[in-house]
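dude i think i finally got it to work??
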Amino acid sequence: MSDHDVELLTISTEYSYVPIHRSKIVKKINKHTISDFVDKLTCESWDSICNSEDVNAMFNSFLSIYLRIFYSRFPLKKLINRNNNGNNWITLGTKTSCRHKRELYLISSNSNDEKLKRHYQSYCKILLKVIKEAKKLNYDTKTKNRTINVKHLGKSLRS
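look at this
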């Protein structure tokens, strides 16, 4: 038996949302980098670990090889949150309602309660109407606030 505890590494393949006007440094992890990481681990010679008698030396050797490959295959990437003008209609309330809809879906899909399923369906219809109205209001506001350059419009119509 070894005197070392087992360690578990969980790698998420999705980026989390970045707060507004902030940058975040994350590891670049996707299907390609994961497969490359696994390939490099399988191609690595692990003789230095197996030939040692000292458990601590074996562990340190394993860890240094593993971390060297890990840091080389998953480089750091700076994510900068840009204000996405296409989704200005999404509010905190809309996000909360979508999260609640997802929770209702999970509960209703595992249940045989017809009342719960009807509640989920009516919630979806109401949320859909709210989202459509929010988009409509957003685009109406953009249209009203936009000024038209007549010279530019004439050039585009001639070409």
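The first strand starts at residue 23 and ends at 27.
im so relieved honestly
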